[in-house]
């Protein structure tokens, strides 16, 4: 699997997604610092929401092969600034999480990702039900760069 760095708002589901991709059933704790898991770099949501942390994200992204911008499907307003994804020197994909929840709005989530500068592709997943995880894992296993 490609080594990925996950970024996105506080509570978007980054750590839960890493656990789900690794078949780790433990509950995700709040991420308080940049954390290297096997094959993935987890980041605290604050690093994406507070511009003075951007330099840390940029430096760390160099350790990855691809950046995943994680968007909560139930989050109705854009939290990341316009063009956020454009600052990375790695290919960037989008992942919409929490698709299992009744208030999930996929179109709105994609619009948030596009506004944040994420181009193709976008995957839809649920860490709870496992929806979409295989498609994402397959894409990362193939080293997919389609759409970038
Ligand atoms: N229903 C549902 N809940 C989810 C899903 N993914 C994450 N959650 C819940 O959302 C909350 C936040 O998830 P985390 O994985 O800790 O979010 P995070 O993006 O790592 O947050 P920070 O570490 O604060 O940046 C937790 O209560 C998770 O159980 C999902 O796919 N479905
Ligand atoms: Mg986390």
Structure keywords:
Ethanolamine utilization protein EutP; binds guanosine-5'-triphosphate; P-loop_NTPase; globular; binds magnesium ion; 148 residues; ATP binding; Rossmann fold; single chain
Notes on the structure:
This protein has a single domain (4-141), classed as Rossmann fold, CATH 3.40.50.300. Helix content is 27%, strand content 18%. The chain contains five helices and six strands; from the N terminus they run E-H-E-E-H-H-E-E-H-E-H. It has helices spanning 14-21, 45-49, 54-61, 106-115, 133-141; strands at residues 4-8, 35-37, 40-42, 66-72, 92-97, 122-124. The chain has a six-stranded mixed β-sheet with strand order 2-3-1-4-5-6, with helices on both faces. 39% of the residues are buried. Bound molecules: guanosine-5'-triphosphate and magnesium ion. The site of magnesium ion has 5 residues, from helix 1.
List the topology elements:
Elements: E1 4-8, H1 14-21, E2 35-37, E3 40-42, H2 45-49, H3 54-61, E4 66-72, E5 92-97, H4 106-115, E6 122-124, H5 133-141
Parallel strand pairs: 1-3, 1-4, 4-5, 5-6
Antiparallel strand pairs: 2-3
Residues 14-15, 28, 31, 42 line the site of magnesium ion.
According to CATH, what is the topology?
A: Rossmann fold
- Structural class by sheet pairing and helices: alpha/beta
Number of helices: 5
Q: Which bin fits the share of residues in helices?
A: 25-40%
Major sheet description? 6 strands, mixed
How much of the sequence lies in strands comes to 15-25%
Number of domains: 1
Bound molecules: guanosine-5'-triphosphate, magnesium ion
CATH architecture: 3-Layer(aba) Sandwich
